[in-house]
Amino acid sequence: MEQTLSWRKGLFDSNYQVFGNALLKFSINFSSFKNSAIATTQKEIYLLKSEGYSNPETKILNNKNEVLAVIHYDWLSFKAKIVFTSGETFDWSFQNSWASRWTLNNQKEKQVIYNSSTSNGLIHSNTDDDLLILSGLFIREYYTRILFIFLILVLALFSSRSII
Predict the structure, then answer these.
(1) pTM of structure
(2) CA-closest candidate to residue 17, choices 114, 120, 118, 140
């Protein structure tokens, strides 16, 4: 099933809203200081809970606290892998150097392509799996937060060096 969805978020906000046919399909609300989120779809509520620093991963839980999938991150290449409990595996990666286009696919029949501008974008998908689609947005926000923290640290180092 081919579908095109639109998404938006606030400029300094990490809460996403995804629309299909001008109707709210699902939303993702991120925790302020953690890489965790609550996603609400029309059918279910999910918790995406990140753990670890040297070998980071995010567990996707349903409302019964059962693990549905685990996201493993590769910080050096800005990639991720989603492994569902069903055994299905998806690869996530940026497609351009501006981080405004990224994909999620299983190298077989399912593919999701994301495009973004500053605070909105489009999603082209050949599946109607809300959990898969929201996982791709979650990973993007995860890497955006890491890049933001890295930039703050670099600026702090340069500004402290000029003071001393």
Answers:
(1) 0.91
(2) 120
